[in-house]
Amino acid sequence: MPIQPLPTGLPIIAPRAADSHKGTYGRALLVGGSVGMPGSISLSGQACLKGGAGLVTLAVPDAIINTVANFEPSYMTWALPTDRSGHIPLHAKSRLREKLEASSCLAVGPGLGQSQGLFHLVGHLYETFTGPMIIDADGLNLLSLRSAPLAGRAGPRVITPHLGEFRRLVGKPHLSMEDARDMASELAGRQKITVVLKGPKTLVTDGQRHWHNPTGNPGLATGGTGDVLTGLITALLAQSLDAYEAAVLAVFLHGLAADLAIETTTQAGLTATDLLSFVEAAWRDYESRRDHLST
Amino acid sequence: MPIQPLPTGLPIIAPRAADSHKGTYGRALLVGGSVGMPGSISLSGQACLKGGAGLVTLAVPDAIINTVANFEPSYMTWALPTDRSGHIPLHAKSRLREKLEASSCLAVGPGLGQSQGLFHLVGHLYETFTGPMIIDADGLNLLSLRSAPLAGRAGPRVITPHLGEFRRLVGKPHLSMEDARDMASELAGRQKITVVLKGPKTLVTDGQRHWHNPTGNPGLATGGTGDVLTGLITALLAQSLDAYEAAVLAVFLHGLAADLAIETTTQAGLTATDLLSFVEAAWRDYESRRDHLST
Amino acid sequence: MPIQPLPTGLPIIAPRAADSHKGTYGRALLVGGSVGMPGSISLSGQACLKGGAGLVTLAVPDAIINTVANFEPSYMTWALPTDRSGHIPLHAKSRLREKLEASSCLAVGPGLGQSQGLFHLVGHLYETFTGPMIIDADGLNLLSLRSAPLAGRAGPRVITPHLGEFRRLVGKPHLSMEDARDMASELAGRQKITVVLKGPKTLVTDGQRHWHNPTGNPGLATGGTGDVLTGLITALLAQSLDAYEAAVLAVFLHGLAADLAIETTTQAGLTATDLLSFVEAAWRDYESRRDHLST
Amino acid sequence: MPIQPLPTGLPIIAPRAADSHKGTYGRALLVGGSVGMPGSISLSGQACLKGGAGLVTLAVPDAIINTVANFEPSYMTWALPTDRSGHIPLHAKSRLREKLEASSCLAVGPGLGQSQGLFHLVGHLYETFTGPMIIDADGLNLLSLRSAPLAGRAGPRVITPHLGEFRRLVGKPHLSMEDARDMASELAGRQKITVVLKGPKTLVTDGQRHWHNPTGNPGLATGGTGDVLTGLITALLAQSLDAYEAAVLAVFLHGLAADLAIETTTQAGLTATDLLSFVEAAWRDYESRRDHLST
């Protein structure tokens, strides 16, 4: 079978240089988790490792830190306080500061939950972290509650809403997918951010550029696959792709992993944990098509 | 080798629609677990994911929540109180209410243990949850203690007794398997519920319809395989099959997974964890026979 | 390649009957573990499942119960008290009694550690449990401290010393392996117990019968492989083999698993966890040679 | 394809003797871990098992002992106190003494963190443990803070700095890799220790002998791979190789595992956990080339 060329518009990452080291591939910080929800942030962290980040640290409430750590020994964890409702409190800010300074990119959201403190914390991070940042899941729901949800960013931003989350973000509860796509592009251009509108043929846009993702299948309709995507985008931000390109390549690899997965498993049986184990097959497929291209 | 057609009477699920999402495949809630018994409810939860449910939440005593969470990052957990005997207390009712309202189906029983509080809690759920509900293991043993065990259901119900549990349920300690089968059919018809009488050639019946399951083998005679079945039934209820059809298809896939498993492993060596890893092979076999049928 | 016949003297287990269930394959209870040592008893428990026991329960100090539970969801755990030194105290006796009555066999030792309380507890179990019982590792070291180490057994007993443990047991610190073999046979005959003297060509003897095991390799010289053997013997006791036959077949399968493992891995790289994953290959090899025999 | 001979200068380990046992392959003690960092010491411990050590014990702060234990049942753990900052305090010395006496080699560093107490503890171990010892990661950073970092060793020592760590060790923040290589050789000769200078073509030197490692690739540029190397060196020290030879063979196998890994995975997707699973393939490749050599 002839090798399928990679689709036009997909970022091409160069092979790793022989003298590169962990630092070359960035230090990713992911903030999330709450009591009862240690899995989401771990899925993101595992995906961030598999996406190629050099060093991955998960900042989580101390009540779940051992549980989060236990999923995977290759990432590090960073204990934040836990409030009475099992969430990260606002005063975790000072404890986070130290880590943020040493981080090349930031993800906020997986398993975070919602609280008054988190509303302020997420807004604070959005407005002060100067590196690239991705906001997903409850992080995004909390942003939506702000009077001007996406205003005040201090650096490059990626948001990854599905249709329901996008509706909340723009305050239009009955928006169709088609109208949402138009609005996502307009919003991205106005705010100078990257929007990943998840769904069939996921759209990635920064207002100027548009990516209609050709990979993926309904096997992804299961809990945790969004967390895996967040981790992959974070990994590519850590490796210095710009926000739009990181989102495009991550969305492509994520869908490709799902497509490769259902060649041996099935749509119904696919879990987020299974998906993780196919990320490397997706990388491999991407690399062989890239290398074929260049010869 | 020619492809074996699927047996007559087996429900045929349509392929997933391209625009489907997590919500399409339901929100399953599973209640169980007790101190020392975190494994059963986790097996059910993992099977529920592998069975194709969109979102899976396990409501467990807070004393074991981290342990349960640690088995699998793709499901969520929901902390209930733990009483002094290590069980879920009756007053967990109010904490459960919030989750029940957002759940499309409910499973109660795996690893639950028994207590006075649980006796009342299981009865309460049986009599008030209006969606489809499956009751297994200690959930079923607790129902059996009620003066009219199966009376007062508020929605569709599936029970999954093995012979010993069925004897306790009907108060006949010496019932033969043959008589139990007759009585199961009669009971299902009278109570308008679905009874899964587990054993060789497991019977599924709602009084009108009867399924004599052709799959499965004695390798299933090991701890935890019943929990896997409970999870699969829950997954299919979440995907909107009616109670009888969900039970039939789950019983079929569960036995098929065991049959496929012993082609590479053995009856003696099969564990419930191994069985889980063959659920996707069972799905795959089912789908290829379904698709062959339709061509 | 022609199929190698099974060696003469190896017990032949019949295929599982179609109408068998969990209860048919016994209820195994394994007592062990201490703070810092949750792995050993878990390895035994996992091996007991893979050895074919119907239901497996691990009774461990409550300080490590969640850790033990987390290794494998298919077994159950039973919380015993933990004393200040991290061990099971003597007064765990009453809590154990309830489980012992429902157990078809008992293993004591993996990860147990040593204390005054355990010295008395192990002696008590040895002298009162009327079913078959296996004593290994620290359980055996504690028995060795009694004035008459093996006196007073209340049922069938299997002990599994390596040379060092056997020397302690008989109070002869310089015994050669050859002399130990002679003495093991004499001891087994006198005490009417089964002795498994571990080493190259492990000896199993009840004084009348002798098994010189042909399987196994030096890859087994790594921590935890003895725990796996204990679990396999327990599984076969649970399935109603007599003590000598259970020990012979378990020793054979254990060594065979190691032999099959190093066909794909290596002696240096083999871990106890790897070994576990080859138990089913050993069963499969045994069954195919058994079935070939019978045709 | 013809079998590649092993490179000249690589230590050749003899096949395991038939009558060897766990004790033959040594008792390794690894000291590390801190709150939030349980993964590193576990990766080292798992690598130490896969490297062939007979018995592996991880001495860690009691606050994380269950988490560390849960990664792998085949090693043992040993609880040290935890100070308020989540680290091992200086007074852990007395608790360690007992284990040190029974250990054939020692590793210090993975996930250790830094504190005043640890500064003194690491120096104390360096100056008093008479067996072979490897110091890595924070262990090395703490040594660097001493006025004479490498003075006063009580036995054979291996250090494993990457360029940044080596710069701190010698107090030259702008040293080039080339100059570092020269200085590493000079330092090793003067201190009579073995230095592993990690990077492309990792250098191993004891001042007299020099190994320029031919294996490895930039897929190793991900968190945790250094911990795996530490575990492999420890395993070979436990098996009585001298410090230089242990380091050479471990560095070779570690790089080879990475090279074999990326034949099925990719550089970007490789994690430290993946690397671990290829250690046995590296052993296998080494052994087949060794055995081919000898015929």
TrEMBL record, chains A, B, C, D:
Give the catalysed reaction(s), semicolon-separated.
Answer: (6S)-NADHX + ADP = AMP + phosphate + NADH + H(+); (6S)-NADPHX + ADP = AMP + phosphate + NADPH + H(+)
Q: What is its EC number?
A: 4.2.1.136
Q: Which residues bind (6S)-NADPHX?
A: G111, H162, D227
InterPro entries reported in the protein's UniProt record: Carbohydrate_kinase_pred_CS, CARKD, Ribokinase-like
Q: Which GO terms describe its biological process?
A: metabolite repair; nicotinamide nucleotide metabolic process
Q: Where does AMP bind?
A: K198, G199, P200, K201, T202, G226
Required cofactors, per record? Answer: Mg(2+)
The protein's UniProt keywords, in alphabetical order, are: ATP-binding, Lyase, NAD, NADP, Nucleotide-binding
Q: What GO molecular functions are on record for this protein? A: ADP-dependent NAD(P)H-hydrate dehydratase activity; ATP binding; NAD(P)HX epimerase activity
Q: Which domain of life is it from?
A: Bacteria
Coiled coil location: none
Report any Pfam family annotated for this entry.
Answer: Carb_kinase
Q: CDD domains, per this entry?
A: YXKO-related
Residue ranges of the YjeF C-terminal domain?
5-286
Enzyme class at the top of the EC tree: lyase
Q: Which PROSITE patterns match?
A: YJEF_C_2, YJEF_C_3
The record's family statement is:
Belongs to the NnrD/CARKD family.
Q: Which PANTHER family match?
A: ATP-DEPENDENT (S)-NAD(P)H-HYDRATE DEHYDRATASE (PTHR12592:SF0), ATP-DEPENDENT (S)-NAD(P)H-HYDRATE DEHYDRATASE FAMILY MEMBER (PTHR12592)
Assembly, per entry: Homotetramer.
| Record's function text | Catalyzes the dehydration of the S-form of NAD(P)HX at the expense of ADP, which is converted to AMP. Together with NAD(P)HX epimerase, which catalyzes the epimerization of the S- and R-forms, the enzyme allows the repair of both epimers of NAD(P)HX, a damaged form of NAD(P)H that is a result of enzymatic or heat-dependent hydration.
Put simply, this protein is called ADP-dependent (S)-NAD(P)H-hydrate dehydratase
Organism, per UniProt?
A: Bremerella alba
The gene it comes from is nnr_2
